[in-house]
């Protein structure tokens, strides 16, 4: 039985969409996709636009996983960017840095165009600020500002110090800010639902309440579910942290981390203007960071911390409240209206994992907390790979990933220790 959406702000304000059926028969398509989050749905849109017959099988509801639970920040800050440059250099040589730079922004372009093309109502807005949490982080932000200018983004970025930061965010805790007007924020569930509707309109078959129990490999592989099957030329596994398919190839590669988010009750126009007058999405410079923005109905949507143990935190609202009050003491008495958690797949080197478990069975996963834009780039890369252009896919597939030969529980403990180490090291930054 499918699980319904968690009680989040996104679920409470989701656009009504006609239901997607449960698979109850055997069907035949060109490409079958496991998982109806951003990766699966975005790939389906790309394929359907190319005239490919595609089916998406989602165990729960469309975007049920991380895609309906995230901060909605569409950011050019890629997870694992430095590691990517190093590893991609094996295939791309000096072009690796440009490849990674373009990767940062390609997802933005895909989302912007898609929202426009299919008239998706998802509160898409432009503007981010990354804020220096420590004086020692200021130089790093300034370097990022210079890099953006060197890539021709002068008109889209602005570097602010001291009091000028206070004009854009109503708190005194930051030392500098890098404003980026190319970055965006969005109601992520409505984006994914809108994309699923677009894919359906283009002929894609989308099924909810349809858990894939196994993959039968062969010349034309099959996805096996309790009540039906899908035979295809190619299969994409896009189940992120939540699937257990192809364990011989994928076990020990990806570990679920729990992230929590809360929203307040709607703020008055005056309070909203005082804390975030330009309606920016804001995040700080720490390894495990605070990130927040205003929703369309003027709630503060605030995320912070990551639980790498693989388990959910007992009371996420109580855990996040001190971070909110530290940032905005004026919200100390504000009621938390929604609190929820989600799991994202963390890869140890933080590079997204794209590859094959068989010649005609591919996978894409592991955006390590930075998946809204990345999943859309990956959707394009996977659709190209499945229609014959494997250039960018091969760059990712060539990456050497760590694989821990231990179960998920022990893997998560190892990850938690590793991340603790990085957080301690950060205190010296
Ligand atoms: C709390 C939180 C905050 C975040 N904030 C941000 C942010 O602000 N910006 C950003 O860029 N990224 C953010 N992320 C990360 C981002 O949301 C994810 O990286 C991205 O949504 C991953 O998309 P996906 O489609 O790969 O996976 P998911 O959205 O997790 O989708 C996987 C889907 O596969 C389905 N599935 C699994 N197994 C099976 C099976 N056997 N059969 C059928 N279906 C199956 C699941 O039910 C699920 O719906 C955040 C993540 C979380 C959890």
Please provide a written account of the structure.
- 34% of the residues lie in helices and 25% in strands.
- It is built from 13 helices and 17 strands.
- The chain has helices at 9-12, 38-49, 81-92, 96-117, 138-150, 163-166, 188-201, 247-250, 269-275, 316-327, 371-386, 391-397, 408-426; strands at 26-34, 54-57, 73-74, 125-131, 157-161, 176-185, 205-207, 214-216, 222-224, 229-237, 254-264, 281-284, 290-294, 300-307, 336-347, 353-358, 361-365.
- Strands 3, 4, 5, 6, 11, 12, 13, 14 and 15 form a nine-stranded mixed sheet that branches.
- The structure holds flavin-adenine dinucleotide (FAD).
- Flavin-adenine dinucleotide binds next to helix 2, strand 11, strand 15 and helix 11.
- Flavin-adenine dinucleotide is lined by residues 34-40, 57-60, 64-67, 69-73, 75, 211-212, 238-240, 242-243, 245, 259, 261, 291, 303, 342-344, 365, 367, 369-373, 375.
């Amino acid at each position: 039985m499918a699980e319904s959406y968690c009680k989040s702000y996104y679920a409470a304000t989701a656009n009504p969409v006609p239901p997607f059926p449960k698979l109850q028969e055997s069907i035949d398509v060109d490409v079958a996709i496991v998982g109806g989050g951003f990766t699966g749905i975005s790939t389906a849109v790309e394929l359907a636009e190319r005239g490919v017959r595609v089916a998406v099988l989602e165990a729960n509801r469309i975007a049920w996983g991380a895609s309906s639970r995230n901060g909605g920040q569409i950011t050019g800050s890629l997870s694992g960017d430095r590691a990517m440059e190093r590893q991609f250099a094996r295939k791309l040589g000096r072009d690796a840095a440009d490849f990674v730079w373009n990767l940062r922004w390609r997802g933005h372009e895909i989302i912007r165009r898609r929202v426009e093309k299919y008239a998706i109502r998802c509160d898409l807005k432009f503007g981010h600020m990354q804020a220096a949490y420590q004086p020692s982080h200021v130089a790093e932000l300034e370097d990022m500002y210079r890099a953006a200018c060197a890539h021709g983004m002068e008109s889209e970025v602005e570097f602010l110090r001291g009091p000028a930061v206070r004009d854009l965010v109503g708190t005194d805790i930051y030392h500098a800010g890098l404003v980026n007007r190319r970055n965006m924020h969005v109601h992520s569930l409505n984006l994914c639902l809108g994309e699923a509707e677009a894919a359906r309109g283009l002929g894609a078959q989308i099924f909810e309440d349809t858990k894939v129990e196994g993959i039968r490999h062969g010349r034309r592989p099959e996805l096996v579910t309790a009540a039906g099957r899908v035979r295809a030329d190619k299969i994409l596994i896009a189940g992120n942290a939540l699937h257990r398919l192809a364990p011989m190839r994928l076990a020990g590669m990806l570990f679920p981390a729990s992230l929590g988010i809360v929203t307040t009750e709607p703020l008055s126009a005056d309070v909203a203007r005082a804390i975030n007058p330009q309606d920016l999405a804001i995040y700080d410079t720490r390894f495990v960071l605070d990130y927040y923005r205003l929703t369309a109905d003027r709630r503060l949507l605030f995320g912070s911390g990551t639980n790498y143990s693989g388990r959910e935190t007992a009371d996420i609202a109580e855990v996040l409240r001190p971070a909110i009050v530290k940032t905005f003491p004026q919200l100390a008495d504000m009621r938390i209206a929604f609190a929820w958690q989600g799991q994202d797949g963390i890869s140890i080197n933080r590079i997204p994992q794209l590859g094959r478990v068989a010649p005609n069975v591919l996978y894409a996963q592991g955006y390590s907390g930075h998946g809204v834009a990345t999943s859309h780039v990956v959707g394009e890369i996977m659709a190209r790979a499945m229609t014959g252009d494997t250039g960018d896919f091969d760059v990712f597939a060539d990456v050497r990933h760590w694989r821990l030969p231990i179960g998920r529980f022990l893997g998560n403990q190892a990850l938690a220790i590793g991340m603790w180490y990085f957080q301690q090291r950060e205190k010296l930054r």
